Amino acid sequence: MIPRPLTVTFDAHDAARLAQFWAGMLGRKVVEDAAGALLPGEDGQLSLRFAPSRTEEMGPNRRMHLHLTSASHDDQQHTVATALGLGASHLDVGQRPEEGHVVLADPEGNEFCVIEPGNNFLAGCGLLGELACDGTREVGLFWSEALGWPLVWDQDQETAIQSPRGGTKVAWGGPPVAPKEMRNPQRFDLTPAGGDQQAEIDRLVSLGATRLEVGEDGTVVLADPDGNEFCVTGS
Question: Which terminus of the chain has a lower count of CB atoms within 10 Å, N or C?
């Protein structure tokens, strides 16, 4: 199977500002497109898109957060200082003082972590080392098949996948998974291989996805086996 690229979209009240924040964190350029502001990823790094949203409350229990890697303790401190200077804030999620990572929130409250140096699991993954998700083993297996990305971790109901080209890992922490109460403000976006949207949708449904709705722009919204929405674009 040909590996598919993956874009993660974040709904945002101020998409332009949030895109500029993450461009500053990741050293990327912002590309405006019809769906918002895109930060293209290279060498296996995830692409990030920030889409304007009028949703008043996006909820505190977001199911994805980013992990940034560090080459040294000084590098970690520099990344944290850069984030705070760009508008991030410290976030208390119950982490213990002896844990080496630093938990922050971006300007719209999306949690992310700056991981301590020496983390072997993220070695060689690049600055955007991991997208950590709430989810079952079943959903990890689904996305491995959907993207054509092999499993690089499958233990104790926890799974992780990575593009054959390397780069950012996508991981699911296993049960318990918090009940889903609203539409996720973060989601995966897929572009169909060869431009055949219907064939891609049929393939994803055969793997366990559920068709939900069609947007005004022709984007089809599906749900993965855990009920998380994701989109397949028209081209």
Answer: C
